[in-house]
Design goal:
The structure is a homodimer. The first copy, chain A, is mostly helical. Chain A has one domain (17-107): Arc Repressor Mutant, subunit A (Orthogonal Bundle). In chain A, 59% of the residues lie in helices and 11% in strands. Chain A has five helices and three strands, in the order ααβααββα. Chain A is globular. The first copy, chain A, starts with 10 loop residues before the first helix and ends with a helix. Chain A binds a DNA duplex through residues 21-23, 38-40, 43, 48-56, 71, 74-79. Chains A, B: Keywords: DNA-binding, Transcription, Transcription regulation. Chains A, B: This is HTH hxlR-type domain-containing protein. Chains A, B: Residues 9-109 form the HTH hxlR-type domain. Chains A, B: InterPro entries: HTH_HxlR, WH-like_DNA-bd_sf, WH_DNA-bd_sf. Chains A, B: Pfam families: HxlR.
Chain lengths: 114, 114
DNA sequence: CAGTATCCGTTACGATACTG
DNA sequence: CAGTATCGTAACGGATACTG
Protein backbone atom coordinates (compact mmCIF):
# COMPACT_ATOMS: atom_id res chain seq x y z
CA UNK A 1 0.00 0.00 0.00
CA UNK A 2 1.31 3.43 -0.85
CA UNK A 3 1.80 6.14 1.71
CA UNK A 4 -0.86 8.63 0.66
CA UNK A 5 -3.79 6.23 0.58
CA UNK A 6 -5.87 5.87 3.69
CA UNK A 7 -5.34 2.17 4.33
CA UNK A 8 -8.15 1.34 1.89
CA UNK A 9 -10.89 0.56 4.33
CA UNK A 10 -14.38 0.42 2.88
CA UNK A 11 -16.12 3.21 1.08
CA UNK A 12 -18.02 4.37 4.13
CA UNK A 13 -14.79 5.04 5.95
CA UNK A 14 -13.56 7.18 3.10
CA UNK A 15 -16.83 9.06 3.00
CA UNK A 16 -16.78 9.65 6.73
CA UNK A 17 -13.22 10.93 6.59
CA UNK A 18 -14.49 13.51 4.14
CA UNK A 19 -17.94 14.54 5.29
CA UNK A 20 -17.66 13.49 8.91
CA UNK A 21 -17.31 16.96 10.31
CA UNK A 22 -20.05 19.20 11.53
CA UNK A 23 -20.02 21.57 8.57
CA UNK A 24 -18.46 19.65 5.70
CA UNK A 25 -21.61 18.48 3.99
CA UNK A 26 -23.09 21.91 4.35
CA UNK A 27 -20.06 23.51 2.77
CA UNK A 28 -20.01 21.14 -0.17
CA UNK A 29 -23.68 21.70 -0.58
CA UNK A 30 -23.30 25.48 -0.67
CA UNK A 31 -20.42 25.39 -3.10
CA UNK A 32 -22.22 22.94 -5.32
CA UNK A 33 -25.37 24.99 -5.42
CA UNK A 34 -23.57 28.17 -6.40
CA UNK A 35 -21.11 26.60 -8.80
CA UNK A 36 -18.34 28.74 -7.45
CA UNK A 37 -18.29 30.90 -4.39
CA UNK A 38 -15.94 33.24 -2.55
CA UNK A 39 -14.81 32.92 1.03
CA UNK A 40 -16.97 35.54 2.66
CA UNK A 41 -20.10 34.67 0.77
CA UNK A 42 -19.63 31.07 1.78
CA UNK A 43 -19.24 32.20 5.36
CA UNK A 44 -22.52 34.05 5.10
CA UNK A 45 -24.31 31.02 3.65
CA UNK A 46 -23.03 28.55 6.20
CA UNK A 47 -24.65 30.31 9.10
CA UNK A 48 -22.78 30.25 12.36
CA UNK A 49 -19.45 28.96 11.13
CA UNK A 50 -16.32 30.74 12.33
CA UNK A 51 -13.29 31.75 10.34
CA UNK A 52 -11.08 29.13 11.87
CA UNK A 53 -13.44 26.29 11.23
CA UNK A 54 -14.35 27.38 7.74
CA UNK A 55 -10.70 27.73 6.77
CA UNK A 56 -9.80 24.35 8.22
CA UNK A 57 -12.74 22.70 6.54
CA UNK A 58 -11.86 24.18 3.18
CA UNK A 59 -8.25 23.08 3.51
CA UNK A 60 -9.39 19.63 4.46
CA UNK A 61 -11.85 19.32 1.62
CA UNK A 62 -9.23 20.56 -0.80
CA UNK A 63 -6.69 18.07 0.49
CA UNK A 64 -9.25 15.33 -0.05
CA UNK A 65 -9.65 16.53 -3.62
CA UNK A 66 -13.29 17.43 -3.23
CA UNK A 67 -13.01 21.15 -3.90
CA UNK A 68 -10.65 23.40 -5.77
CA UNK A 69 -9.27 26.67 -4.54
CA UNK A 70 -8.73 29.25 -7.23
CA UNK A 71 -6.63 32.20 -6.18
CA UNK A 72 -6.72 35.07 -8.67
CA UNK A 73 -3.78 36.79 -7.00
CA UNK A 74 -5.45 40.15 -7.05
CA UNK A 75 -5.53 42.93 -4.55
CA UNK A 76 -7.80 42.97 -2.69
CA UNK A 77 -7.62 39.19 -2.70
CA UNK A 78 -10.10 37.18 -4.70
CA UNK A 79 -10.38 33.48 -4.14
CA UNK A 80 -13.02 31.18 -5.43
CA UNK A 81 -13.96 27.71 -4.39
CA UNK A 82 -15.65 25.19 -6.58
CA UNK A 83 -16.25 21.48 -6.62
CA UNK A 84 -13.67 19.22 -8.18
CA UNK A 85 -14.61 16.24 -10.29
CA UNK A 86 -14.89 14.10 -7.19
CA UNK A 87 -16.90 16.76 -5.43
CA UNK A 88 -19.26 17.03 -8.35
CA UNK A 89 -19.85 13.31 -8.28
CA UNK A 90 -20.59 13.46 -4.57
CA UNK A 91 -22.92 16.42 -4.85
CA UNK A 92 -26.02 14.60 -6.11
CA UNK A 93 -25.78 12.21 -3.19
CA UNK A 94 -25.78 15.13 -0.80
CA UNK A 95 -28.80 16.54 -2.57
CA UNK A 96 -30.55 13.25 -1.98
CA UNK A 97 -29.62 13.34 1.68
CA UNK A 98 -31.08 16.82 1.88
CA UNK A 99 -34.29 15.60 0.29
CA UNK A 100 -34.46 12.70 2.70
CA UNK A 101 -33.93 15.01 5.66
CA UNK A 102 -36.56 17.42 4.50
CA UNK A 103 -39.06 14.67 3.82
CA UNK A 104 -38.42 12.96 7.12
CA UNK A 105 -38.68 16.22 9.02
CA UNK A 106 -41.96 17.04 7.38
CA UNK A 107 -43.37 13.60 8.02
CA UNK A 108 -42.34 13.57 11.67
CA UNK A 109 -43.59 17.08 12.22
CA UNK A 110 -46.94 16.03 10.82
CA UNK A 111 -47.09 12.98 13.08
CA UNK A 112 -46.30 15.04 16.12
CA UNK A 113 -49.41 17.14 15.75
CA UNK A 114 -51.44 15.51 18.49
CA UNK B 1 -43.54 25.22 16.06
CA UNK B 2 -44.03 22.32 18.43
CA UNK B 3 -41.53 21.44 21.11
CA UNK B 4 -40.27 18.10 19.84
CA UNK B 5 -39.33 19.21 16.36
CA UNK B 6 -35.81 20.37 15.72
CA UNK B 7 -36.58 23.90 14.66
CA UNK B 8 -37.07 22.73 11.08
CA UNK B 9 -33.83 23.83 9.60
CA UNK B 10 -33.02 22.37 6.19
CA UNK B 11 -32.76 18.72 5.39
CA UNK B 12 -29.00 18.66 5.64
CA UNK B 13 -29.15 19.76 9.25
CA UNK B 14 -31.51 16.94 10.06
CA UNK B 15 -29.29 14.46 8.29
CA UNK B 16 -26.22 15.69 10.09
CA UNK B 17 -27.95 15.42 13.45
CA UNK B 18 -28.50 11.78 12.62
CA UNK B 19 -25.42 10.57 10.81
CA UNK B 20 -22.98 13.20 12.06
CA UNK B 21 -21.19 10.92 14.46
CA UNK B 22 -18.14 8.87 13.75
CA UNK B 23 -19.89 5.49 13.67
CA UNK B 24 -23.52 6.25 12.91
CA UNK B 25 -23.46 5.63 9.20
CA UNK B 26 -21.46 2.49 9.74
CA UNK B 27 -23.98 1.19 12.25
CA UNK B 28 -26.96 1.88 10.05
CA UNK B 29 -25.13 0.25 7.23
CA UNK B 30 -24.43 -2.90 9.23
CA UNK B 31 -27.96 -3.17 10.52
CA UNK B 32 -29.40 -2.58 7.10
CA UNK B 33 -27.23 -5.19 5.47
CA UNK B 34 -28.15 -7.85 7.99
CA UNK B 35 -31.81 -6.99 8.27
CA UNK B 36 -31.71 -7.46 11.99
CA UNK B 37 -28.74 -7.88 14.25
CA UNK B 38 -27.94 -8.40 17.92
CA UNK B 39 -25.78 -6.21 20.07
CA UNK B 40 -22.62 -8.26 20.19
CA UNK B 41 -22.66 -9.21 16.56
CA UNK B 42 -23.05 -5.57 15.69
CA UNK B 43 -20.11 -4.78 17.91
CA UNK B 44 -18.04 -7.34 16.04
CA UNK B 45 -19.03 -5.92 12.66
CA UNK B 46 -18.32 -2.32 13.54
CA UNK B 47 -14.67 -2.93 14.21
CA UNK B 48 -13.12 -0.92 16.98
CA UNK B 49 -16.23 0.52 18.54
CA UNK B 50 -16.50 0.39 22.31
CA UNK B 51 -19.49 -0.56 24.43
CA UNK B 52 -20.14 2.96 25.56
CA UNK B 53 -20.09 4.44 22.14
CA UNK B 54 -22.11 1.67 20.55
CA UNK B 55 -24.78 1.91 23.21
CA UNK B 56 -24.97 5.67 22.95
CA UNK B 57 -25.16 5.52 19.19
CA UNK B 58 -27.94 2.98 19.27
CA UNK B 59 -29.93 5.02 21.75
CA UNK B 60 -29.44 8.07 19.63
CA UNK B 61 -30.45 6.38 16.42
CA UNK B 62 -33.49 4.93 18.11
CA UNK B 63 -34.50 8.31 19.48
CA UNK B 64 -34.22 9.70 15.98
CA UNK B 65 -36.55 6.96 14.80
CA UNK B 66 -34.01 5.42 12.48
CA UNK B 67 -33.74 2.03 14.13
CA UNK B 68 -35.95 -0.12 16.31
CA UNK B 69 -34.87 -1.97 19.41
CA UNK B 70 -36.65 -5.25 19.97
CA UNK B 71 -36.18 -6.72 23.40
CA UNK B 72 -37.37 -10.32 23.67
CA UNK B 73 -37.20 -10.23 27.45
CA UNK B 74 -35.44 -13.57 27.66
CA UNK B 75 -32.68 -14.80 29.86
CA UNK B 76 -29.95 -14.58 28.80
CA UNK B 77 -31.04 -11.33 27.20
CA UNK B 78 -31.82 -11.21 23.52
CA UNK B 79 -32.18 -7.87 21.83
CA UNK B 80 -32.36 -7.20 18.15
CA UNK B 81 -31.91 -4.03 16.21
CA UNK B 82 -33.40 -3.32 12.84
CA UNK B 83 -34.05 -0.36 10.65
CA UNK B 84 -37.29 1.52 11.03
CA UNK B 85 -39.23 2.85 8.07
CA UNK B 86 -37.16 6.02 8.10
CA UNK B 87 -33.97 4.03 8.43
CA UNK B 88 -34.93 1.85 5.51
CA UNK B 89 -35.52 4.89 3.35
CA UNK B 90 -32.13 6.26 4.31
CA UNK B 91 -30.30 3.01 3.72
CA UNK B 92 -30.06 3.18 -0.08
CA UNK B 93 -28.50 6.61 0.18
CA UNK B 94 -25.84 5.22 2.47
CA UNK B 95 -25.22 2.44 0.01
CA UNK B 96 -24.66 5.05 -2.65
CA UNK B 97 -22.23 6.87 -0.41
CA UNK B 98 -20.36 3.65 0.13
CA UNK B 99 -20.17 3.11 -3.61
CA UNK B 100 -18.94 6.64 -4.11
CA UNK B 101 -16.27 6.18 -1.45
CA UNK B 102 -15.11 2.92 -2.90
CA UNK B 103 -15.01 4.28 -6.43
CA UNK B 104 -13.18 7.42 -5.38
CA UNK B 105 -10.68 5.45 -3.34
CA UNK B 106 -9.97 3.13 -6.20
CA UNK B 107 -9.58 5.98 -8.66
CA UNK B 108 -7.24 7.96 -6.41
CA UNK B 109 -5.21 4.89 -5.55
CA UNK B 110 -4.75 4.24 -9.23
CA UNK B 111 -3.64 7.81 -9.88
CA UNK B 112 -1.16 7.69 -7.07
CA UNK B 113 0.78 4.84 -8.59
CA UNK B 114 3.73 6.84 -9.81
C1' DC C 1 -25.86 -11.50 26.46
C1' DA C 2 -26.54 -6.82 26.60
C1' DG C 3 -25.52 -3.64 28.38
C1' DT C 4 -23.91 0.47 32.80
C1' DA C 5 -20.73 3.17 35.32
C1' DT C 6 -16.77 5.77 35.62
C1' DC C 7 -13.23 8.41 34.22
C1' DC C 8 -10.03 10.22 31.06
C1' DG C 9 -7.95 12.11 26.66
C1' DT C 10 -8.33 14.07 22.25
C1' DT C 11 -10.19 16.71 19.01
C1' DA C 12 -13.26 19.42 16.97
C1' DC C 13 -15.39 23.57 17.59
C1' DG C 14 -15.53 28.47 18.74
C1' DA C 15 -14.73 33.75 19.90
C1' DT C 16 -11.87 37.27 19.27
C1' DA C 17 -8.19 39.94 17.63
C1' DC C 18 -5.12 40.73 14.13
C1' DT C 19 -2.66 40.72 9.13
C1' DG C 20 -1.04 40.99 4.02
C1' DC D 1 -11.12 40.37 1.04
C1' DA D 2 -9.37 36.28 2.70
C1' DG D 3 -7.68 34.67 5.72
C1' DT D 4 -4.01 33.58 10.47
C1' DA D 5 -2.96 33.34 15.38
C1' DT D 6 -4.18 32.38 19.86
C1' DC D 7 -6.46 30.59 23.41
C1' DG D 8 -10.30 28.39 25.58
C1' DT D 9 -14.25 25.05 25.92
C1' DA D 10 -17.30 21.34 25.24
C1' DA D 11 -18.56 17.38 23.02
C1' DC D 12 -17.24 13.18 21.47
C1' DG D 13 -14.83 9.12 21.65
C1' DG D 14 -12.57 5.41 24.26
C1' DA D 15 -10.62 1.84 27.89
C1' DT D 16 -11.80 -0.70 31.58
C1' DA D 17 -14.38 -2.75 35.14
C1' DC D 18 -18.65 -4.17 36.58
C1' DT D 19 -23.97 -5.84 36.54
C1' DG D 20 -28.86 -7.99 35.88
Amino acid sequence: MHPTSIATADGITKVLAVIGGKWRINIIWCIGRKGSIRYNELKRQVTGISNTVLTRSLEDLASHQLIERIDYHESPPRVEYRLSVDGLSLFPLIEQLDCWGTATCAKNDANEQY
